[in-house]
Amino acid sequence: MELNVLSIIIPVAALIIGIVAGKIIFAANTKKQIEEAESQAKKIVSDAQTTAETLKKEKILEAKEQIVQLRAEHDKVVLEKNKKINESETRTRQKEQSLTQKLENIEKQSKENDAIKDNLNRQIEVVSQKRTELEKHQEEHIRRLEKIAALTADEAKAQLLETLKHEAQTQALTMQQEIIEEAKLKANKEARKLVIQTIQRTAAEQTIENTVTVFNLETDEIKGQIIGREGRNIRAIEAATGVDLIVDDTPEAIILSSFDPLRREVARLALQRLVTDGRIHPARIEEVVEKTRKQLEEQVLDIGERTVIELGIHGLHKELVRMVGRMRFRSSYGQNLLMHSRETANLCATMAAELGLNPKLAKRAGLLHDIGKVPDEESELSHALLGAKLAEKYGENPAVVNAIGAHHDEMEMQYVISPIVQACDAISGARPGARREIMQQYLQRIKELENLALAYPGVEKAYAIQAGRELRVIAEADKLSDADSEKLSFEIAQKIQTEMTYPGQIKVTVIREKRAVNVAR
User: Fold this and answer.
1) Which of 45, 161, 212, 504 is at 20 to 30 A from 286, Cα to Cα?
2) Overall pTM > 0.70
3) What distance in Å separates the CA atoms of residue 503 and residue 367, rounded to the nearest whole number?
4) For 451-467, how does the pLDDT look when each residue is reduced to its tens digit (9 = 90+)?
5) Nearest-angstrom CA–CA distance, 324 and 115
């Protein structure tokens, strides 16, 4: 490439020199000048040719050096490629040798496996022969046993199965009892832990209400004013409030008697206003009672609003809020209904939080679970179903409606919070001191408990002790065995659990003993 460049440069340089010489010649005015110019031109051309030749040689040398360098680099690349090819061929040969060795090992192992297989086949044949011989001996042995025992194999098998069945039933009952006891222990332990934590985190407040209210007076002279001429004032009060006024020899006190705490509160507040005002006559009594009733309705609504605000419950319908306030003047077995509902709500929220559920929804259901006890109108429905109907009417969450209706098992539980509300209702109502149980109901429950145990065959006596929390059963030793006693205890406990309603738990103890009595004379 450089030689081609030189071949182009030299003629160009000569052309340029010729043009310059022509100009010199043209510029010369004399022949001498022309000769000198020609001489200079020839000299310039000669110098240019010499320079071009020198440059040509230098470029040729540089080109040769570059060719030598490129050839050296090419040889180096070729050597490296040859080296890599040799290394690759070496690795390939090694892999071939390894694969050849593995194939030889596989063939060797296959031959060994064939030998082992042949050996196993021979052993299987021997085992088959021995099994055939054993079956023949077993058949002969069975025939001899049948001849000795005078029983066929099927009859002996039936007897054996019957014996094994009886033993299996006994063992299964024992195992079932142990499993149930262990499960109860674990479940009771976890449940007790959860319930204790829930109760400890809830500040319980309890108010015991009676069916009477005592109205205190400053002096006994006011009794005459309350009674009025020929008793017209007291009759007007009783007619307006629906409360019986008992005026007896109790100093400075009048007793207000009514099953409805709301009516008693209206009568108490109306009497307080009448006594303070001093004007007591039928027209004034009716006016004061009506004003008091309206103010109490406002107070009921205020109590309901304060309750839902304190519990952090939002969006409750106004009628439901009013029913919550009415709970303040209602009691169940001596337990104030509003306090019971608040306590149940707090227990539900705590227990739901412990179980990872929605505590606000559980608290709402706990507060409203007994609203069926304070309806505006009488209904034939139970308080649980009526409460569910009211909650549904006023747009409550379906989970809350179901929890209200199902807390006495009168409706199928469809949501997780329903059993929580039921459990917390039982915790609040059944804990010691929460409620007063009527004596007749208590005696009836004790009697039913004893009769339930006496209905079983082999039971001689049954005693309900420790206030009905333990049932002690005396079994007849001649009719029941120890295993039967365990079974009897289990069956009685299951029947009590399914057929009876009771607070807490009942322990069933079956006692079986054999007594030998003789008299020395």
Assistant:
1) 212
2) no
3) 21
4) 898 999 888 888 887 76
5) 90
